[in-house]
Amino acid sequence: MRRFGLIGRTLAHSFSKEYFTCKFEREHLSDCVYELYELPRVEDVLSLLKEHPDLEGLNVTIPYKQQVIPLLDEVSFEAQNIGAVNCIRRMKDGRLVGYNTDIEGLRSSLGHLLQGAQPDEALVLGTGGASQAVQYALAEQGIGYQLVSRDEMRGNYTYDNLPVEVVGASRLVINATPVGTWPDVEDAPRIPYAYLTPDHYLLDLVYNPDVTTFLDYGMQRGAHVLNGRMMLEVQAEAAWRIWNE
Q1: Kind and range of the H or E element at 134?
Q2: CA-to-CA distance for 236 and 5, rounded, in angstroms?
Q3: pLDDT, tens digit, 9 for 90 and up, residues 113-139
């Protein structure tokens, strides 16, 4: 049996198992299985790999995308530059190699959302592992950005001191936090939504629910919106290619 899975601290919200299980059934891959592995500590991944010698590949989600890097034997050039890993391949010799496939999902999502538009400035909500990939994708496209964080040492602004003028001028707003994920579907990042306009583009990396409160607020202001489902699917397929190289 070929085994794959997702590691994180809380995985009840995840569609990854459903996605890969459907993929395996659709493509008649009866020798493949995908499981969710909730780990209290990132270091527990090493015990997990010992327990399952048939575990060939892992996806990585909150809060371990940055924490897992010191445990790996090798990290791809792009993942090194991003500073986060969301995909691990166990090589036949036992080495653990980290990759970042979020970036592929972000490229596709931004292209689909913007449809050729080129905002001068973006506002990125969050400074964790997903945000690292967002920042990399924006830099690739020449879009300047500012960061909003709960920690005043990690962002340009905190949610308490974010100027309304910055929200108005940042035509692209990306939620790179888990805020609004099921079951806490009524939550949304604390930004002044009244300053959004029909010229704004909102990307939420959350994919469960389909329409988050963050996106709903944007839709009420006439903004263009996209959830994280495309990113999930594109990064998952990119991970599958890596595991089968």
Answers
A1: helix 129-140
A2: 11
A3: 999 999 999 999 999 999 999 999 999
For 175, which DSSP code? E
Residue 153: pLDDT band with limits 50, 70, 90: confident
Residues facing residue 184 across a β-bridge? none
Write the DSSP symbol of residue 195.
G
Is residue 234 within 8 A of residue 105, CB to CB? The reply is yes
Return d(Cα 221, Cα 196) in angstroms, integer.
Answer: 6
Reduced to 3 states (helix: H, G, I; strand: E, B; else coil), residue 162 is coil
Q: Which residues contact 175 (CB under 8 A, 6 or more apart)?
A: 125, 126, 189, 202, 203, 204, 205, 206, 212, 214
Q: Considering 17, 23, 65, 92, which one is annotated as catalytic?
A: 65
Q: Is 92 an active-site residue?
A: no
Amino acid letter, 8: G
Strand order of the β-sheet with 144-148 is: 144-148, 121-125, 172-175, 201-204, 224-226
Question: In the predicted model, what is the mean pLDDT of residues 51-70?
Answer: 97
Please give the average per-residue pLDDT across 52-77, as a whole number: 97
Nearest Cα residue to 68 out of 9, 150, 147: 9
Amino acid at 97: V
How far apart (Å, rounded) are the C-alpha atoms in residues 75 and 86? Answer: 11
